[in-house]
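dumping this here before i forget
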Amino acid sequence: AAHPRALVHRDRRRAPRAPSRHRVRRQRKRDRRPQGKRIEQITQYIRENYQDINLSASAVAEHFHISLPVLSNLFKSELNVGFLDYLHKFRIERAKELIVHTDHTIGDISAMVGYANSITMNRAFKRCEGVTPGWYRQSASFHAAAQKGAGDVSP
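structure:
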């Protein structure tokens, strides 16, 4: 036989409650909010601040006064990509432009696009592009030289 107090505690458990009117109203309000505009504001903020080494999901969430899970869910639902993947891809695209069009070192470029060091950028670059930044630069200069050489051929 069960202890008498155990029966009392078991009986005190509440059945799941229906959501309150206030909770339902807040949810409806949230559903009407244009999430597309919010994600545009956030991606614009990233485009303007990607060079900041301290730019992170928590910093962005704090800037926009939203929680980290809300920020994460917003990226997943609106862009089908996580925040960090989006940030890395954006930084790598900028790094690719600098690698091809400037003579800056890979270390300098990594700092310019917001990485604390070149090792971190090398890892992210290889994950996104499949090659290291140095190899990408060599390949781009080889293709540019080949195209320039093809144009110099006279009949």
